[in-house]
Amino acid sequence: MTATQAVSGPLPRIRVLRRRPIGFRLTLIVGLGFVALAALSALAAPLLAPHPPEAADLGARLLPPAWLRPGAAYPLGTDAIGRDLLSRIIYGARISLEVGVLSVAASGIAGTCLGLLAGYYGGWWDELAMRAADLQLSFPFILFAIVVIAVLGPGLSRIVLVLAVTQWASYARLVRSETLAVRETDYIQAARAIGLADRRIIWRHVLPNALGAVSVLATLSVANNILLEAALTFLGLGVDPSIPSWGGMLADSRNYIQTAWWDSTFPGLAIMLTVMGFNLVGDWLRDWLTPDMA
Amino acid sequence: MIRFIAARAGGALAVLAAITLFVAFGIRLTGDPAVVLFQGAAPSTEDIKRIQHALGTDRPFLVQYGAFVADALHGDLGTSFRSGQPVTGMIVERAGPTLALGLGGMFVALAAAFPLGAYAATHRNALADFLIRVGSLLGLSFPNFWLAIMLILIVAVRLRWLPPSGYGGPGSLVLPCVTLGIILASTLVRLVRASLLDTLGQPYMRTARAKGLREGRVVVRHGLRNALLPIVTFVGLQFGALLGGVIVLENVFAWPGLGQLALQAVTYRDYPVVQGVVVVLALGVVLVNLLVDLSYGLLNPRVRVSS
Question: Each residue of B199-225: pLDDT tens digit?
């Protein structure tokens, strides 16, 4: 019989046929490519930028990109006071990544810790943390940002603060539900039965189960927070306008939209590609962790 | 059902109380309005005391907050530091354009996301599905204000089809609403697709087909209708994000709405106006969320029973 044959011989490896969406691997490669490009710009800005980002050449105001005006020293053209657009875009990557990564780290760590404690111990602490999370999530982000910036004034640290405070609740909820899902499993019960300390159980057995979902949320949040920072800076509620940032460059370009299209096109392209990079990596992570959802 | 409504309304009230407390407290941290009124001139201590008394800012915070809530319930949100006009009147004047933009954007988003999402779900992993997914990803990665600038650049500056900015006439609504709609639809289309894929795998879909219903009818009547629940929740929760989009786009399109009013008030440190606009907008978002919660209970009897 086939059954005995199968048992006697070496078991054939069964390849589970999972249908990945079209372009599954491409997603990761393209995404990592854009993220790497932004990270490289941020880290090596002084080496890559052809001009200092603040150097204004008043004789070369609003010059078009080099391919429209051969012989120009400015590859992507210049802005209204003659600063090199490419150099400012390269330096601008610093602000975007700084805000994106710092805000996600702050809210992610705080939210994960709260979620672990709430899910593992339950009780009044759980109730308190979840009510606070509900409250935070029902406060519209933009209104929270307007009030905080009106009170504290604009600036990079304030943006990170606003983003971190408004987003911890998503992590707390996510991690809590993951914790509840594993809390009653046999291996956690076993760990408890052999007398492991709660701290060790949470750290070594509960947290690793939640990290997958957290990493997806964190990656997508970096993308989202870069967008939010750019929008706030564009509105004048964000980072200092004297620092080169993509949102600030777009705000500056608005008066010249009729004459200098490059001014309002390239900084936005930089935001879009970077954000898309993080979104692609996040999507890939999610599909990879939960194949049947794709 | 009545207990369900009462619980949800109580929750909404708590949220609103927390938001107004936060706003009122935060605004009072920014410094003494009596000093702000002098705009840099050096007032004497008596002058300041007199003005504090006139403004009522010498009373304890909770008393001031109570007075603010009582006045707000009578429709009085205070007086603008800058213009001296009542804040309520300023808000009423600006509410129309904001509502027009928000509802228009939502309409465009729903009109685009449902057919596209349904098509992607029924043609899973086909080329069109891939293209719709890529399109949604692009939409998610576009900064909304940059999409607005690009549309202005192409449609208004190059082609001269529509006015680049300003409010007035149906033509001026098109660009802002389409921009907002594209951004919202990018998230929505993914949700419609995922939610519909979920229902398409259910046994009742096979039953519907076995009855001999046409495929289109099966998808719309049995699939989409059941896929609607998570979508309704999501659309409700999106109102906070929608508000963010509206405020940014009002800025790009020089739209005379509430967002512009609030941003100008922040610049001029006109705190009664900031406070009034934030409270009114928060009220709007909380009410919409409450309505969504309640409609969820109506659409899905299981929710009512379990709560």
Answer: 887 888 888 888 877 777 778 777 777
Helix or strand or coil: residue B145? helix
Chain B residues with CB under 8 Å of A263 CB are: none
In angstroms, what separates the C-alpha of B249 from chain A's closest C-alpha?
A: 10
Give me the amino acid identity at B59. R
What does the alpha-carbon distance between residue B255 and residue B262 come to, in Å, rounded to a whole number? 12
From CA A158, how far away is CA B290, in angstroms rounded?
31
Q: How much is the pTM? A: 0.87
Q: Check CB contact under 8 Å for B251 and A234.
A: yes
Nearest to A187 by CA among A167, A168, A209: A209
Residues A92-138: tens digit of each pLDDT: 999 999 999 999 999 999 999 999 999 999 889 999 999 899 888 88
Residue type, B12: A
The DSSP code sequence of B1-46 is -HHHHHHHHHHHHHHHHHHHHHHHHHHHHT--HHHHHTTT----HH
> What phi and psi, each to the nearest 5 degrees, are found at residue A78?
-130, 165
Shortest alpha-carbon distance between residue B183 and chain A (Å) = 12
